[in-house]
Amino acid sequence: MNQLPADQTVPVSLLSSCFNNTSATYKFYWFLSILEAVEKGHYQIKKQGLFAGMVANAWYTINYFNLSFGKQDRLQRAIKQILSLEHIAIDAKKEQIIETLSRTAKPDTIRHLRYFDGEVPYRFLSPWFSRIKGSKHEIYQLSQDFSNDCLYTVNEHEVIINPKWIAYLTENSGILKAFCYWHLCIYLQKHNPNVPDIANKLFKRPQRSGLLKQRKEFWDIVINKSGPVKCIYTDTYLHLNAYAVEHFVPFAFVSHDLIWNLIPADKRFNSSKSDKLPIMDKHFDAYFELQELAMKTIFDLSPANKLLQDYLTILPDLNALNSLNRETLKIRFRENIQPLITIAANNGFQYMS
Predict the structure, then answer these.
(1) What is the DSSP string of 283-330?
(2) Which residues contact 171 (CB under 8 A, 6 or more apart)?
(3) Cβ contacts of 91 within 8 Å, gap of 6 or more
């Protein structure tokens, strides 16, 4: 069978129009699931596996980063229910999630997955059958012989990719994924207007970067100069080489390792804190005192230290550090931290008990 050209001569508008009507968010995740299956050489794909791929691609965004997809979004609701039903870890690998959900026999999980059968597979094909309005049965029937060179044929149990499209999808999968993620990023920014770094919360990073640089080139210098410092959570003294570096506002919310959000902490407590939020009335003063000590120590001993640049969002002129009124500096830190804590709480992050 002839193939469609694998270059950009395939009308981009045709694929773009697949996302123009209702349930667009579902369709982006549906298309991502199809692309990932095609990349693995799977062209005859069980629907349950594709629905599992939809859930797996949105899993980390919803369960780890707590982003909102909108109050009425069924994908978010389904994932929260499946998390409880299947006991899958929040940080599970995508392949593990897909494998579990593709094989599950739990009726409630299957019901949540099958909801999307009435929303996505046939609606996604509507641009190829523009004269048919909302008829699942008709589109299923017309797709059987790949009418109008539609992307796939669909029946009650599976999707079969049109051989004419395989080369195009395979060779342009990176571009097509970027197209999906770009539009998902815009959608999620609309529903999470005050949440930072949406783009990096669309998927699980392969590996979190360590904090060795911040420890060795910053906090070790501070502790070596000032002596042991107190953990703001346990009041235990933290000695050189015997402390953890932790995110005051959880990494799962800020999605960065800037030094103004990193403090030394008791190792055992840091393991149990997880992604809980600190309590401002209880922890902020001690957090600020550590940060003030660190800023001034590093500025005096190593003014060219690049990690000091992380503070520029709080203090645009670092040369003013030693002459700045202490209360003014404290207010600037509070104005930086308090909104993050409030927004994180509003997005479902829990406070420490």
Answers:
(1) HHHHHHHHHHHHHHHHHHH-TT-GGGGGGGGT-S-GGGTTTS-HHHHH
(2) 6
(3) 60, 64, 204
Report the alpha-carbon distance of residue 269 to residue 46 in Å, rounded. 45
Residues 41-76: tens digit of each pLDDT: 999 999 999 999 999 999 999 998 999 998 888 999
SS3 161: strand
Angle, helices 24-39 vs 47-63, to 10°: value is 110
The residues, any chain, with a CB within 8 Å of residue 249's CB and separated by 6 or more, are: 261, 277, 278, 337, 340, 341, 344
Residues found in the chain: 353
Confidence of residue 330 (pLDDT cuts 50, 70, 90): very high
SS3 344: helix
**What is the rounded CA–CA span in Å between residue 221 and residue 279?**
28
Q: What distance in Å separates the CA atoms of residue 216 and residue 97, rounded to the nearest whole number?
A: 37
Long-range contacts made by residues 316-325, C-beta under 8 angstroms, separation at least 24? Answer: 321/295, 321/296, 322/296
Torsion of CA 272, 275, 278, 284, to 10 degrees: 100
- 3-state helix vs strand vs coil in the chain, percent to 5: 60, 5, 35
Q: What is the pLDDT of residues 142-185, one digit of tens each?
A: 999 999 999 999 999 999 999 999 999 999 999 999 999 998 99
Tokens found for residue 306:
């690049």
pTM of the model: 0.78
Say if residues 45 and 121 touch (Cβ distance below 8 Å): no
**Helical spans, DSSP H, in 158-244:** 163-171, 173-191, 212-214, 220-226
Q: Are 324 and 318 in contact (CB under 8 A)?
A: no
Q: Strands 262-265, 229-230: parallel, antiparallel or unpaired by DSSP?
A: unpaired
